Structures
1.
Amino acid sequence: MALAIRRTTTDLFTAAKWFARRDCRFLSSLPEKAEETAEEAPKRPGRRSSSRNPALEFRHVYPEFLPDPNPKWRNSLREKLERADMLKRRNQIDIPEFYVGSILAVTIADPHAQGKINRFVGICIERKGCGLRAEFILRNVIDHQGIEVRYELYDPTIQRIQVLRLEKRLDDKLYYLRDALPEYSTFPVDMDPEILPEGTPVPLNPVQVKLKPRPWLERWERQELKGVSNIEEHLKEKDRVRRELRKTPWEKYDLMKQYRKTIPEEDQNEIWGEVYNQLHQLQITRKKTYRKRTLSTPKPQLG
Amino acid sequence: MANSSLKLLCSSLNKLKINYIMQRQNSRYQPPRYRPPHWFVPKERVMTDEMLTQENRQFLEEVRQDKMNVQTALESPLSNSEPVATTQWDPFTRRVGLIARKIGNYPLWSKDGKRFQTTLLQVVDNHVIKYIPPEEFNPMVVKKPVWKEKKRLGALLVGSETIDPTIVTKEYCGLFDSVGMLPKRHLCRFMVSPHAALPTGTPLTATHFRRISRCNEALGIQRYACIPWCHQDSQETWQHSWRVLRGVKILRINTKHNVLWVLGVGIPGETGAMCYMFDTVLPLRKHKTAPPFPTHLPTDDLPLEYYDESIHPFEEPTISFEED
């Protein structure tokens, strides 16, 4: 259902063009912005080369390697031990690059499941935590019932994390999908992975969801969300007044607040310098296995 | 004239006004008392300008550096002397403890996939300072004298984190100087059995608790950073208040950095707070077999990490469950 809404006619047209070019090799559905990004490519030649330090780009791909900026919780030795443990775990399992808004399939060992294995497909609505505490939440609607599962990224019971569609959304958190129409968070369980051509930047999905009428779980109107289209329909006059009162437009000029919320560049250089070689090695091995992989993926068993 | 004297009278009466005295609502509240440790000697010195010349300052720095080098090169007195056969461990022995620093929390997973929150405790540069035999041990008089301790246990002073001798008082430095050590930032007294005594200068490491089991008790300094009714002066009062946590389980030990992972996040204090650790006295969790006694001898062929048998090391493959 969600797929049908996302496909406008022009998109279908570009998809057809793309299919023709790629010899119709992949039967999976295609990322929407493939055509646009191909045009943009000469302006921004790759994400890597644009920055001065290539290792600093890792902060988007591996955000959990940066510690919590609260100075009360920082300790260099603990952070070092934690990073070493994370790399040890990453040597055992391939944890791919994904963002909030990407669609993932997670296979986890579950002693109570039939076959001792459980697979869940859903959209990543939140990614948070740092170090070994890093976690993400997947959401899907199964049998008209919204389901959310929280997974720890470094949990050793996770057997496989597969990115079915790599993309970003307009917002950092997609908690509003809980109050949106169910079609926006419904994804088929037997979805095929979509393969992006190598070197393309991560596509941005500009879809705007429609919220259900009130009551809501949160006051979405105060959060300045970009991914919601019909928020004004459900507001009363008093909500608009209160939203104006609660606005904090000065915060974007508060440099100290931003500084306290982030890890400074000097610290980041140190951290990435420590883990760069191993992460880069992991990326290379992943690319190799990715090329080798046969295109006919076996049908996943449903848990 | 009369007017001015009236004003005087008014101002003197104003001074007698009692409306600024506050009545405390919670009458059961007792403000925290300042509890100095029993071996208390003033540690911090008032820093003054010594008017030293540049050469003198350099000379002092050189001497300090030499002493530090000697101290770091100090070998454990246990390694060169043969272990005496008479010192045998029995279940009633009390071993020495360690001074550790809390450095944070992170989760570990067990082999059946359960998540455990752990606290990391780092053992920083611990050395035995002095042994006081039971006959000479004469503690400060407290309200309830601990007669049992006084009769049969000696006191072992353990220090952690070497500091610059010029920043501490003469009295505090004298504690260390009399036995030929450099002053330490933290000093703790552990009551030990006479045959568990250690010679001065023995380094203590995390492998002191090498057998990973419920063998450990942590004693923490609790620090309240800001309490509404506490003003600045009484922060010191809280620094010496103690909280005891019994039977803390050790899950993992790193021998290179001397770090212990202990179960739970209930270790008192913030990140960077100190705590004292020693063998547990809980009857069901006490040592059944001999731990490293009197302490673990320094050897080179230690594994980097010790794990509890229930803990899943991160370098092992993914957990999967067998189908029945």
2.
Amino acid sequence: MVPADQGGGVMRADMLADPVDGLDEALAAVAAVDQALVTGLLRPQPAQAAGLAALADAMAASPLAARVAEAVDKAAAGAAGEEHFISLAAARIALFGSVHDAVMARIRQATGRAAADEAVTTLGGDQPENLVLAARTWLSDLARAGWQGIDHDLVSGAAPVVSALLPEPGLRRLAALVDGFAAELAASCPGSALARIPARRWGDLWSRAMLLTLPGATRTSGGAVTGRLLPLGVDLHEHATAAQAQVHAVFEPADGSTPMLVRASVSAPKPDTIIGAGIWQLLRPHLSLLAAVSEGRSMELTDMPVTAEGDLLWRNEHAHLGEPADAFATARVALPTASIAPTAPLDRHPVRIAVPVFLEGYEAEQSEDTVSFAVAGHQVTVDTDRVPVAGPLTPEAVAASTACIGLLRWDAGSFRVQPLAVETTARKKTVALHAGAWAGGTTDKAGVKAEKAATDAAAVLRERAGRLLRK
Amino acid sequence: MPEWESSSTARVLAPARPRKLSKVPFVELADGRLQGVVSSGSDVGRVYVSSVAVGSYEFACSTNNNRPCGGARGSFCNHIGALVTEAAVQYGAERVARYLRVEVATEDVVSGESILQAMWRARPPQGDNSAAAVVFSQFLRHLAYLELAPTTTAVPEMQWFPPTRVVA
């Protein structure tokens, strides 16, 4: 059922296959910077200098033009300082900002979702300077060495930086990023022996970390909301030493104003041996919404803080369990009417795009490891690899599904749908399977077993910590 | 450009595989060594710090109070055996072998056991225990992650780290 005034319920898959204008040019300029970072900026070769010049050209009409031009000159001469690396990182992020906006415009066309016109402002502010400066120095050393020049000495320089950043709540974003990035670099040493390099990814991580060292980069405005929260599904993120669960939901304000798409997040640093169900156990106590998701319930929010980006700053005391709410009913009825919040300047990167969509009436197809949905004659790739292992949803279930709540994403030049939940038919009855069903706890037999193993692992670590940590 | 190189979410590391932690609470591939901490079977307050170096397989084992391990005199002790076995569970035997630069005989399956045998055939030297303090402090740093408070402020940077169902 699709309300007459909104087109948000039906996805036009044909629009996802069409090329987006201007994308190739922006990504070519990004690739030039990324190639410079592969070989490093200590002694740049002519090819790197040419690539950097292409970046300066791409930025010529932007407010950053003068700073980028200066940074490119210095970098091409092998004389770039930290402020120049920041300018290069900012230019790269600005390019991705334009890619983000073009991709989002296409998604709005394809989903018929209205654009939010308000902008999110970054407030700026004060961060403990010396902590971020240490991170900046390490990142600058990386840029000079290049990915092919990394070795254990250089990469291990991140460890004291991360240890100092992690306890500071305001610096958690930078800490989680540098920690995950450094682990990948450490496993890839020496860089000279790498057969292939994830140039786009490491360019992303490097430039983003660089910008997060600027004071106040992450502070945005916000308010508080009261009303009903209808969960759609759970998106999980994890690297060896951090995890985040993000609940996507439709929020219906008590004052009857337009419903909006919101997210509620919980994240934590973790030892690398806390995995699977152990991650849900770690995060669960701090986001009561996860239990509501597992029980198929809505939640009533009272004065819950929220950012202008639609991120709830969850506090358990501002929420209580509401009526049963089926995510598929929410997807069919409430999702098409919900507006989407704008994105903060620094977060305008295509990787951050995760737009809830509802699909049905498709033909699911599986060939080898890849599942796709044929929607009105157009193939949409389904990213089943993102479905967490600690849950009842499997790629096989997705391939046998008849309806799907997913997140529309974009990476490496194409759109894909990440399944959050599907409906399949078992014994002539429709059954719903949710990726995050175990997030708040489970009575499922396989889930109980996974919980037990995770409880044991955490108990061993806590016992060891209690005995050894404070000696 | 191939898709992997132009993907923001290219998977670089496979997640750790689940294992029981009671015997070997900590293992890592770092600092040019396979290193970790093995719980003493007899004293709950004691742990052994064990390591094997990449390439040379130089090995060392001592307690956290820097007393030498009785079993590691001229040969791999049980602690090193347990360390290699658990590393193969956590990271996958192939990755451990590749990291240590171990060539397992072609007729053998790559496993913790065959990695240990291949290293032992190379007659590795016994090293001193100078790395023990570093390894132990790495373990404490690892445990300290348990003490850090979770946050409900969104961390958009985690979008770069999607889970994967592919195992090592």
